[in-house]
Amino acid sequence: METKRRESNKRRQALIEATLECIAQEGLQAATVRKVADYAGVTNGLIRFYFSGKDELIRAAYAALLEHIYVTARVGVEDESVPAKVRLREFIRATLSPPIVAPRTVLLWANFLPLTYSDPEMATIRREAYVDTTDILAVLIADSFQQEDKVLDNKAVQGFAIQVNAIIDGLWLEGSLATDKFAKGELEQLGLHAASSVLQLELD
Q: Residue 190, Cβ neighbours under 10 Å: how many?
């Protein structure tokens, strides 16, 4: 039973990956069930076994894209034995380096973005991803200040989290659209310097 479940999850994930590849290559409008089936090398019927139709498939692909970004960014922050400022620095670095900073990532994000204003379920996926990111930033920022023997109230922490997230978003977009403009590690250093200035903490 467990083996069958793993195989089913693997097959579903492969269909999501095929959807993302189809969108990256041909755009969101081209990502019909038939076209995704072609990319995945399966029948339309198999896709409809896992997804009710294009809308559900697109939502799953968008959620998978944001989850991949979030999981990748969290890799360096899980170990709570590591000082908070180090974990905050690693989070910023991860979000401003490949594979998060990449033309394909921003291309997919841009394809999905209009739907987040017209489809309530897509809007919920975007909102939850935003909350997840600002929440982890808030924890890392609060812990970093505590490491410096400073205590901030929740409003101040949330304000800082929003500002640092805005820095990351702006540089992520800039770096993904102009990958040849920045030397290796330059985007990360710009992000760390900007976050240090906002927080008045030594991160870079």
A: 18
* pTM over 0.70, yes/no: yes
Domains identified in the chain and CATH numbers: 1-51 (1.10.10.60), 60-199 (1.10.357.10)
pLDDT per position as a tens digit, 120-155 = 999 999 999 999 999 999 999 999 999 999 989 999
Render pLDDT for 17-33 as a digit per residue (tens, 0 to 9).
999 999 999 999 999 99
Whole-angstrom Cα distance, residue 109 to residue 47?
23
Residues 6+ apart with CB under 8 A from 23: 30, 31, 61, 108, 111, 112
